[in-house]
# Entry
Amino acid sequence: MSLYYEITEYSTSVKPWVFAYLFEKYAPISATYIDPDIQFFGCLEPHELAGEDVGWDCVVTPHVLTDSLNAAQNPTLHNIRACGSYNFGFVHFENTARSGNVINFWKRQLVYDSLNWLEENLFTDQRFGDMFPSLCRVRANRSPALNVAYWNMQERLVYRHSSGRPHVRLIGDVQDDGSVVDCPLVFFHFSGLRVPGAIGISKYGGRDPRSPRGGSKTVERLAASYDAATSSHRRHLSDLRLEVPADLIGALRYEGRNQSQYYRLRLSERRDLNRFLAERANAGMAMLPPSRFEDEDAFLRALHGISSQSRSGVMHAASNILGAIGMHLPDLGHLDSDASPSGEASQAQLNVIGYPNFSFGVGRITGLILRGLSEAGLRFSFTIDPAKAMPIQDRDLDWVESLAGLSSFHTDAPSLFLINADQMLHYVNTGIANQYFSRVCNLGYWWWELECPVPAHAEAAKYLDRVLAPTQFIYDSLARLLPRQKLIYAPLDYRQLYTSIASASGDPVSAGSDQDFLFSLGLELEIHRFKTLTLSVFDFRSCVERKNPSLLIDLFSESGMEDQALILKCSAGASFADQYLGLIERIASLPNVFLLNASLPQADLRRLFLVCQVYASPHRSEGLGLNIIEADAYGLATVFSNYGGITDYPFFGPGPHYPCPFTLVEMGKGSIVYQSHLATLATAVNWAEPDRQAFRQALRESMQAVALSGRSPAEFKHPQQSFSLIAILKDLLNTQAPARALYQPREALAHRSPAALAIVPTIGDAKRQLYLACRRFLLTLRDSMGAFRHLLNVLKLILWLILRQRRGVKDFYQALTARLYYLRRPPSFRKLDTPPVSPRLR
# Structure
């Protein structure tokens, strides 16, 4: 926060943390924040603060108390709206449970949004105060004696009372008896005080302040006294003993030219950095830099994409943050990465680079493989895949950190990349990929869901010594493009996969009935109205045409299915709005089909499976079919297309299971997800079209079966596979001879200059920059052609006027000159008159 905030933004952003600390550490009855530019002239008694009523959680003061603002002079109504209804130079909290919730809300918002950015409706910590009355009991104290300042002096007369104490009278607010509010001044807020040679009392009032000086001699005396008092006590920040150096706020400290240097970020750089990190955090992405006040070197390395190891050994591969916003530090010296722990015993036998979130399909497979490596007694390192940057769950990393065999990264051990086949090339093109390649052997465990690979796969395979295919379907697909000697069929240990899911089904689930659970998800589904519940899960990013929910909607809309319910659980619908809205329109009139567009926690997703009795997957293609395997482990009956990677899976649950026949058809090129892949292929791609009649029959039979027998997860009785991924990896490691990997990075990223990382784009960055440059060129060219056409039109009209009437050109020139003169005048003077209008310009 101290990097992308300037000192005012930073100072205001810490308020809720101070409140939370005080309440937790000292447990006071209440706490009040007072700005440093406030002077008190009287005591703030409890009855004046919160009134006679009790039960308030928070007390705030509105900026204005009357309708005294317009759109011309500062502060305008727009200014107040942009800054929020309340001024948080003063805010009071009672120590209650509700105020604690409000403070936590305030803390979360101010991590990234304590910006002074009025164009984005952000004004440090104040805008979020408008939400406080919705979250707790707030008293907006309307006493004019509180928070008198330049923004409300037009409605408050400050004068010296006969008692000698300054008083305040609210001018525009008349009571029922005709009187005005008049009371002793409690505190004055000297915000932006500007006394010598200024028309207004504050520098924020602009050139034409709403309340110019001279109207109140009392205010003049108060401001002069305050200015004299603060001047005599003023100290420089550099003289203060601060734990956080003030020079580091909005700046970076680094070693350059053998001396410590500071780089103060420009406004645009601070905002770019703020938005970049905020977007990553809001998306749940990992790899944010560590605290600069805990480890300044690690912080600077993380900003430049140089990885550092966490305390546990899980490697956080940070992205090149400064490079992402186009920023570099001048004269930046050399930074070395953290040295790996010494000792052969701590080094890994296998480096694993994969997805960190085990709530996702490929992430769950990553967890399965890590557990298999641990149980096999292999030492391995785990690096969070920096190319995909999937959301990280703390419990997932905690689980990895607890595994035996977790060691440090070792460049002389093979590296295993657990990512999708179509993303490997993108991974290589990122600027931080080189440091995870092994010098001896690089393996890719590739996932792909179509029967035909794309040229990008062959290009990415050049960086790998072996490509491991998890299913026979994927193996056959990749074999069409890659040499057979590079491919290895390495299936998962389905026994371990099944038992890992089935064992989780016995974990405690959320309290409440199944009906209450469905209602909590927002589903207007009454269980007693239906004989069975059928579930289908898909992600719009995985191609909704491939998952084929339309077939299920058609079947459940048929006669005789009114007492059977279908739940379509999807995610990322907002990214494909047209397709998502199309689904909504189709099911709007169907009382037995329900759409749930949400990313559920793993526990809720498991509960959703357990609530249903049937799982249906009319997919047109599938690399593995993890949701079908989950349904089997949770004891559901399954109906699915007998095509894709699921044909390898030897179903263990009680079922019943209905693999349905299909017909291979040509894949349409209108799919949003696969457009970029299909554009690179010269031949058509086929996928499966499930037999509608067979799928209908299987669905009805499964519903009848579960209605009669119910379901429960079966105990696994099949022997463990000897031919599986872990066994193949162990064999590779045991028989590994001294070798040299096909791809050798020219220069390890950890030993490159961070300045070079920031200013030299990666291949992927260069491609994106080339695309953007071409786009800007074409847009500029289009605008230039438009301007050229307008120029020709002007010349044509001038020529016409000359030929038609010479007097017309003179009149046109005079009218145009008058308008240009008007536009050159200051904005304030333009409102006093209107530009001359010539009938020739209408």
User: Anything to note?
Assistant: Residues 42 and 308 are 55 Å apart (CA to CA). Residues 334-344, 748-762, 829-842 have pLDDT under 50 and may be disordered.
